[in-house]
Amino acid sequence: MKNNKIKKIILSALMMAAISIPTSYASSNVDSQNVNTKSIQFKTIDESTRSKTGWIKNSDGSWSYINYGSYLKSKWLKDSGKWYYLDESGYMLRDDVFLVDNKPYIFDKSGAMIEKYGWIKIDYVLDGENLVNWFYGNGDGTVKEFQWILENNKWYYVEDFGVMVSKRSAVVKDKTYLFDYSGVMVEKKGWISVDGTWYYGNGDGTVKNNQWLQLNNIWYYLDEEGKMISDNSYTINNKVYKFDKSGACLNPYI
Q1: What average pLDDT score do residues 61-88 get?
Q2: What is the rounded CA–CA span in Å between residue 114 and residue 67?
Q3: Where are the Cell wall-binding repeats (predicted)?
Q4: Which of 30, 175, 235, 252 would be a feasible disulfide site paired with 219, CB 3.0-4.6 Å?
């Protein structure tokens, strides 16, 4: 009996050693983006998985890791030279950026952490539409966040969770900047059309916003994001102004 107990203890220790978890990550908690986070509670482990160690695929297509009958949760796992992270519910993070120890880490479709320096593309689907997010990796699995990036004499900006800003304006240090479809800051003076919306550039990457603009005796208005108001009514200082499809105000002197 003693020999059998000793064998079981040794076997359990060997199986735990097979899972490589760095001590600095061992107590990590994850705060994940809600696009991929799940809060489903696992059912009680049945006999078929009680002695299992390794990856298992859940019924919803997600992946978890069982170590001798217990789900790994809020842990890093190194498998075949690649790093993975299991969230607080035991689900493997994948195909997005997630906060782990308050740092934004990026994972590919297989769940492997992406240790690349430079631009990284993540495809996703929103409301049936295929879309793309770009991130800039630091080479250690994390991505740059709230930073300007100068590449090939062009300026880019990455914001919350490291997402590159594109096809819209963004406020950086109280100034409103405009970025084109490829994410490049638009340094043009005058009217600029981005993704079907008109802005008025100052020539330094910023756009006019929250202000009237008079050109050729026609009044236009740029809202908080710098978008030209058109084909609509808009309230400014408690007065309702009307704008035609070209953006011209129809009652500027009310």
Answers
A1: 95
A2: 24
A3: 73-92, 188-207, 209-228
A4: 252
pLDDT at 211: 97
**DSSP assignment letter at 175:** E
Assess whether pLDDT exceeds 90 at residue 45. no
Among 24-38, 108-122, 175-189, 202-216, name the one with the lowest average pLDDT: 24-38
Q: How does DSSP assign 82-104, residue by residue?
A: EEEEE-TTSPBP-SEEEEETTEE
Query: Quick one: what percent of the chain has pLDDT higher than 90?
Result: 74
pLDDT band at 48 (very low <50, low <70, confident <90, very high): low
Structure-token match 């950026």, residue found = 97
Which 8-state DSSP code applies to residue 164?
B
- For residue 87, give the amino acid letter: D
Distance CA 91, CA 111 (A): 10
Residue 185 carries which DSSP code? B
Q: Measure the CA–CA gap between 96 and 32, rounded to whole angstroms.
A: 10
Query: Considering only CA atoms, which of 64, 55, 62, 139 is closest in space to residue 105?
Result: 139
Domains of the chain: 51-93 (2.10.270.10), 95-165 (2.10.270.10), 186-253 (2.10.270.10)
The per-residue pLDDT for 69 is 84
